[in-house]
Design a protein that fits this description.
By secondary structure, the protein is an alpha/beta fold. The protein has six helices and eleven strands. The protein has a domain at 9-101 and 149-216: Glutaconate Coenzyme A-transferase (3-Layer(aba) Sandwich). It is 19% helix and 27% strand.
Amino acid sequence: MIAKNVKDVNEALLGVKDGMTIMLGGFGLCGIPENAIAALVKSGVKDLTCISNNAGVDDFGLGLLLQKRQIKKMISSYVGENDEFERQMLSGELEVELTPQGTLAEKCRAAQAGIPAFYTPAGYGTEVAIGKETREFNGKMYVMEEAFKADFSIVKAWKGDTAGNLIFKGTARNFNPCMCGAAKITIAEVEELVPAGTLDPNQVHIPGIFVQRIFQGVNYEKRIEQRTVRKRN
C-alpha cells in the first residue's frame, strides 16, 4: 500500500505556484483546510484562482488570502460574509465568477469522475448562461457546464490514514468529498492521521485513490461564522 503521508503542510504544498487554480473545501468556515490556507498566506504565492463555496470572512479562511491580495479570481456560489471581498469585487481588483451552488458541486464531481461537461437547467435564461451552449431535452432547456480544471485540490477531513483514505465528520463533509480527485493533485489535511489499514472500510467516505498527499493538521480554531444563541430564561 502506497504511503501518502507527508511530514507537514509545507511539504504537502510543494509545487503550488503563482497563477495556479486551486480548489478549497469547506462551507462557510465549516470544514475548511485551516493549516493549508495559513501556509499559503505565509508562502506569498499570488495570482491564484480559487474555487470554493465562499471566500471565508475578513479575518479567517480565504479572507486571509484576500487581505494579502493573493487571489486574482474567485469562483464561488456565496460571498456575502466578507467585506474585503465586496470591496475588491466592486473596485475591479478581484475577478469573480458566481456559480449556482449545485452547479459548483457538480463541476467538481464531474472533474472527479473524468466527465468533461454536463447539462443543467440551473441558470438558463440568466447571465450564468451567457456564452454557453444550451440544448433542449424533453421540452426543457439546459445549459452546458464544463468540469473544473484545477491544479490542486485542498480538502479537510476529520480522520485519515497514511494511504489517503478519508472520513469526514458531520456537516464538515460539505464540498470536501466532491473536490477529492477533482484536480491534478489532491492534498488532504486531517485532524487525526492513523496507520493504513486501521480505519473501518465501511466508514470511509473517500478512498485513498483520490488523494496524493495527506498530513495531520494542528491548532484548529474551528470558528463559527454566525453564532446564534438562545436567550436564557
